[in-house]
Specification:
Blueprint (H helix, E strand, L loop, with lengths): L1 E5 L5 E5 L11 E10 L1 H7 L16 E8 L11 E4 L9 H4 L14 E3 L2 E3 L6 E4 L2 H4 L1 E2 L6 H7 L2 H11 L7 E5 L3 H12 L4 E6 L2 H9 L3 E4 L5 H8 L5 E6 L4 H10 E9 L12 H7 L2 E4 L4 H14 L8 E6 L3 H9 L7 E5 L1
Parallel strand pairs: 10-11, 10-13, 11-12, 13-14, 14-15, 16-17
Antiparallel strand pairs: 1-2, 3-4, 3-8, 3-17, 4-5, 5-9, 6-7
Bound molecules: nicotinamide-adenine-dinucleotide and zinc ion (2 copies).
Family: Belongs to the zinc-containing alcohol dehydrogenase family.
Keywords: Metal-binding, Oxidoreductase, Zinc
Protein name: Alcohol dehydrogenase family protein
Length: about 350
């Protein structure tokens, strides 16, 4: 089959690789209909996150059709249209039971193979899905394939970020980063009742969508965001800051604009070794810092019905729909924020 594989810093290849096959009886093989490029793929692409074997198939977001079934799979059949969260999960371990499916004791992240161990990704024609019964979700009727796809990672992650921020009506919030995930955090914070949100970025088209979703955009390139947000909150700071970037400058800004006693909810994937602020800085502001991978499988059960019930449209953030064969170019565009790129969807 054809797939996008990792070949080193900023080097990907669209090449022929071995077709995936059933390894465990609980596996299925899915024919990928739609996949997407995530900000998390950029950490790998830029080699800020290191360790991935060359030749690993990239990508962890997909919607597709079940084409092969392991002998122990009971809840799925060939032809089922399914979506996957970005990690696999068993559904029965301690962590799955408490809703932390991203830390499943048997879970794996798609698109991460290190020293020959791990799970290939979904930016391909086919993908192997371990623990398929508990990992995959059948696509509900009445939702577009794109809406369903976006729930497997970024809508769930944005929702998780807003929940961790303790969003409630009347609170004052900051979202740092208006990439696809930051925009989903704004949308989710609105769904959860936030009135006032300041959305910080420097990319005009991203800030324009943030405004459409009901936030006030703060342009980092023109405004001292720290000073502005402190002024807007009478010197107090925001009740919570959703940090959806994953770099030290955003981490420090989150610390600077959160109020004493407030929450920093970080879903940005950080690759620096240390916090920009110290334990005593955190102590002196009484802050709560919440972070981690989104337990997307847990959120999907709630958010897929919500999309239909509340007629939520996620498609405003999709900037490009490209064939898989143009995916390597898609990475270049997304990485360099060219051509007003936001969420890039790849189709087979
Ligand atoms: N925790 C999880 O489970 C999870 C899931 C998905 C994505 N992520 C992470 O979320 C982050 C965002 O993903 P994305 O797809 O939206 O990526 P993205 O790279 O498209 O978006 C990042 C945005 O942050 C902006 N930015 C850069 N520095 C900034 C700063 N100092 N202050 C404010 N904005 C700044 C950029 O202009 C960009 O628009 C990434 O780190 C990604 O790895 C985490
Ligand atoms: Zn992702
Ligand atoms: Zn589990």
């Amino acid at each position: 089959m054809k797939a996008i594989t990792f070949q080193g810093k900023e080097k990907l290849s669209f090449e022929t690789v071995t077709d995936p096959s059933i390894i465990q009886p609980t596996d299925v093989i899915v024919k990928v209909v739609l996949t997407a490029i995530c900000g998390s793929d950029l950490h790998v692409y830029r080699e800020h996150e290191k360790g991935l074997d060359y030749g690993t198939v990239m990508g962890h977001e997909f919607f597709g059709e079940v084409v092969e079934i392991g002998s122990a799979v009971t809840g799925l059949k060939k032809g089922d249209r399914v979506v996957s969260p970005f990690t696999t999960s068993c559904g029965v371990c301690y962590f799955c039971k408490i809703g932390l499916t991203c830390r499943c004791q048997q879970g794996q992240l798609y698109g991460w193979v290190e020293h020959g161990h791990g799970l290939h990704g979904a930016q391909a024609e086919y993908v192997r899905v371990p623990l398929a019964d508990s990992t995959l979700v059948k696509s509900p009727e009445g939702l577009s394939e794109e809406q369903v796809l976006l729930t497997g990672d970024i809508f769930s992650t944005g929702y998780f970020c807003a929940e961790n921020a303790g969003v409630r009506p009347g609170g004052r919030y900051v979202v740092l980063g208006c990439g696809p995930v930051g925009l989903m955090a704004i949308l989710a914070a609105k769904i959860q009742g936030a009135d006032e949100i300041w959305a910080v970025d420097s990319v005009p088209e991203r800030m324009a969508i943030a405004q459409r979703y009901g936030a006030v955009a703060v342009d980092l390139s023109k405004t001292d965001a720290k000073q502005f947000i402190l002024e807007q909150t009478n010197g107090i700071g925001a009740d919570a800051v959703m940090e959806v970037v994953g770099n030290p400058s955003a981490q420090q800004l989150a610390f600077d604009v959160v109020r004493p006693g407030g929450i920093i909810s970080s879903v940005g994937v950080h690759t620096a070794n240390n916090f920009t602020f110290s334990p005593v800085d955190a102590y002196n502001k009484n802050i709560t810092y919440k972070t981690g991978r989104c337990p997307a499988r847990h959120y999907m059960s709630k958010l897929l019905p919500l999309l239909g019930d509340q007629q939520i449209d996620l498609s405003a953030i999709i900037s490009h729909r490209l064939p898989l064969a143009q995916g390597v170019e898609g990475y270049r565009i997304f990485d360099q924020k060219l051509d007003k790129s936001l969420k890039i969807i790849l189709h087979n």
